[in-house]
Amino acid sequence: MVKRLLAGVVFGLLLVLSGCGGGVQDDILNYLNEEMKTAQTLEEKAVSAYEAVAGVNYTDDQTMYDALVNEVIPNYTDLISELETVSIESEELKEVHKIYLSGAKLQYTAFEKIIEALEKQDASLVEEANQLLNEGRLQIEDYNDKLDELAKEHNVEIEKE
Predict the structure, then answer these.
(1) What does the pLDDT look like over 20-40, one tens digit per residue?
(2) Alpha-carbon dihedral of residues 103, 147, 8, 102, nearest 10 degrees?
(3) Which of 31, 58, 76, 114 has the smallest CB count inside 10 Å?
(4) Would you give the DSSP letter of residue 16?
């Protein structure tokens, strides 16, 4: 699940398909190539740290707790701060970016809830956290879809790694 999230967020290189440029196209290029560089790195670190201790890689509660407290949450805190300071000119791109910010905040809340669940040994909190992770993932998928649509409308190709 988180791998799909990461794959959708990692943008890679951009190529302009047709030459005119200007306005929203330039804003998209700047957004992906400059404004989102740090956010992409932070997201990758957080997701990698979580994947290393979740799902099939889960070993024990303490290992997961340590990864969440020491790596995932700090990187997600920085990610959200970074997303809140991204400079965007066009209204269309601002609206798309808001979806990503909202999804990232849901993911952050889910990770905090997992920490609480581990501290309290409360399975119902894990269920709540999983629901939040799913909602966040869906929002980030929506963001990726809308960003792809906006890029296509403005002759920008997003290469995904």
Answers:
(1) 456 899 999 999 999 999 999
(2) -10
(3) 58
(4) E
pLDDT 10s digits, 72-123: 999 999 999 999 999 999 999 999 999 999 999 999 999 999 999 999 999 9
Closest CA to 16 of 32, 2, 35, 4: 32
The type of residue at 80 is I
**Rg of the chain in Å (alpha carbons):** 17
Q: Give the alpha-carbon dihedral of 94, 30, 145, 74, to 10 degrees.
A: -80
How remote is the C-alpha of 32 from its chain's centroid?
A: 13
Neighbours of 43 (CB within 10 A): 25
Q: CA 11 to CA 69: how far, in whole Å?
A: 27
